[in-house]
Amino acid sequence: MATNYRKEVNVLEKLHKIFARMVSGVRNFSYEDSLKSLGLSTLESKSLGGELIDMLEIIRGLDRVAEKVTLRLVNGGSRCAGRVEIHYKKKWGTVNAYSWDLQDATVVCRELGCGPAVSAPGGAHFGEGTGPVVFQAAQCTGTESALRECASYAWGHHSWWHSYDAGVICSESAKPRLMNGSSPCAGRLEIYSSGSWATVCGDGKSWSLLEAEAVCKSLGCGAGVAAPLNAHFGEGSDRVIGPPSCGHQRDVGVICSDHTDLRLSSGATRCSGRLETQHGTQWGTICDVYFVLEDAGVVCDHLRCGAVAEILGGAHFGKGTGPVWRENYRCRGNESSFWDCPVSSWDQIQCSHENDVSVICSEHMQIRLSDGGSPCAGRVEVYYDGIWGSVCDDSWDVANAHVACKQLGCGNALEMTLPDSCRPGSGPVWLDEINCSGNESFLWDCPSAPWSKHVCSHKEDVRIMCSEHKELRLVNGMHRCEGRVEVFYNGTWGTVCSESLDSHDAEVICKQLQCGHLASIDYYARLFGEGSGPILLDEVECMSHESTIWQCQTDPWGKHNCHHREDAGVVCSGGNLAKERAHSANH
Question: What is the C-alpha separation between 215 and 229, in angstroms, rounded?
């Protein structure tokens, strides 16, 4: 019994030595060499081969159960990302990345309770460790609950180079997300870690299509088709998962096979051109045979380009490249995304790039003037990308203002200062450094800095007045609701002739000024005196239902046969005048 025990101990000792030689990289150490070291012949090995394998497994198990093995991930900015380190036989050591892959990383993440694995970088991606190298040549299947259950070379304290230390990035409890792409299946990779979203730093060694595949699978986005590097989808913010030296300029991205995108190409703006759609990384065109108004309307809405203006077939904007997708979209017209439209394939029609369909949208960009008292005076605001924003006054001149006034149908620009009631705006500053020639039809046709690129505050918001800006006031009375009627037009204050002014006309004046109802009309400047400057309005004919006097019929501006002794005056009941006075007294 003692002899057999000593023999087993001797065999185990020799097996340890054999393993040491194997994991130390000794070449040409064959199975026959192992037999010789054990004192076994080839013939004996035929009957002992199975037992030999069992003994090898026993050796592996002896090391693993001898003490509690502890894992940790270090130097990755999160407990669920970093260099893999193992506490083994009272020392912390690293894992050699020889044959290290996502299946091995999956087991590490599972053991640490860190969710699915995202990446298994080698090459000391998280920096070189210190101490021994404990583990090498993992052969996990991905189903194990702990790394110690995986097949591998023998565990030990080896003095190998740390330049091959293995790392792991886990997704923790939440699914990763892809940001700044045009669909949920493409974008900058972000992982929810330690209470906030963080980006992942990578390079060609640590980030590849295999890692992208795992992300796409976890998101239900099909297969991985690209793993772009170097902040392809823009730099993130907040934390970076990776070595301490990693910055957002190395943020990794993912493109999955289910990623879709669309664009209008070769047109004058992003809202006109040949319709192209992307699947994965491949761009292609759409056949014009089945494409109808409802489809085009959803395209324009999807791109935030307003309504559809025109559908053009026959490769109007030139022939595209890539495939002509065999897709027949059947939009109802109320979808918010083009990808919400039902789609079927077509087989009977033969389409080529000669049949590429094009779309022209109304370009949902608008311009307005705010806080100036009329649609033709105020702060210049532009509606772009679904939001109203302002224009910075850097390089602003009369030529720019002329284009804005013309676009608004407000005549020409006036070189006049607006009152302080025209306040600074809010929201984005969309345009800066505009340099119009004055001949452009739209403000955004003028050369300028790129949209939203500026160094301005809202104190620099552009404010303009156009010649069609009109105002109404009562002057020379006891309060703002009585006095001589004066109107502002084309940069000048003038009077109104009383010759044909009646109660219907005067009622509209009181209504427009929010001064209640008409009390009386002053003919021939008896109560409020004669005005000066031009007589701007004559032969006013209102029906009394109008909201402003500008809606009433009149002679052309400045045309009259009156004198200032015929200047009209009006007395209104006051309306909210008492409340206004009380408010003023309290302030």
Answer: 15
